[in-house]
Amino acid sequence: MSLVTMWVVSSAAAQAETLPCEPPTTVDLITAASASDVLGVVEYEVIAENGSSIGRSVGATRRIWGGVVAERWMLTPSRSDCPSTPVSGVGDRWYLLVGSGERFDQPVFGRPSGSALSDLEAGALASIVGEPVTIDIGSLDRAMAWTRVNWWLLVGSLFPVVAVVAVVRRRRSGARRDYLF
Asked: What whole-number distance in Å separates Cα of residue 179 and Cα of residue 43?
């Protein structure tokens, strides 16, 4: 158990050290979407979050404006001092601009005028880059995302159960050398 814990902590610490500490490139969403090199906009929502500052969060695609292909899931640092996306917790949404050219070598994030995308802005995006495709996020998606970022909780809770089952089976087998309790 302690070896697993030490491995999780050391790998998470190594992962935290490799994160870039540059703030993400954010632009005004409607103005940036009006540019000729923008092909579409993807809306992501954080659906699962690791509670520790060294873990990850999972964002899932909610809507896609324009005829672009986007990743269904996106891993982001969770509560990190070095953000790579402009979000902070479960339920937060961010907008990724998809386009062609050197400007899009690094992710470019759009910022709505308010805390959430208004109906007026959604309509403007639909007229600029195309009607949105809405993707539902179900309970199975949320459960898989939670498992992805909190796998260590499952391992930690299953380890004692497996140990108890092993001891009980060993005792019931009638072995002469009962060195497992």
From this structure: 57
Phi, psi of 73 (to 5 degrees): -120, 150
- What sign has the CA pseudo-torsion 74, 80, 82, 86? positive
Per-residue pLDDT band at 140 (split at 50, 70, 90): very high
Show the tokens assigned to 127. Answer: 């007229």
Name the token pair of 3. Answer: 């070896």
Burial readout 108-138 (b: 16 or more C-beta within 10 A, e: otherwise) = bbbbbeeeebeeebeebbeebbbebbeeeee
pTM of the model: 0.71
DSSP per position, 124-154 = HHHHHT-PEEE----HHHHHHHHHHH-HHHH
CA atoms in the 13 A half-sphere facing the CB of 92 = 14
At 31-82, the pLDDT tens digits run 888 888 888 889 888 888 887 767 788 888 999 998 888 888 888 776 655 5
Closest CA to 50 of 140, 152, 141, 139: 152
Q: Which residues pair with 134 in a beta bridge?
A: 63
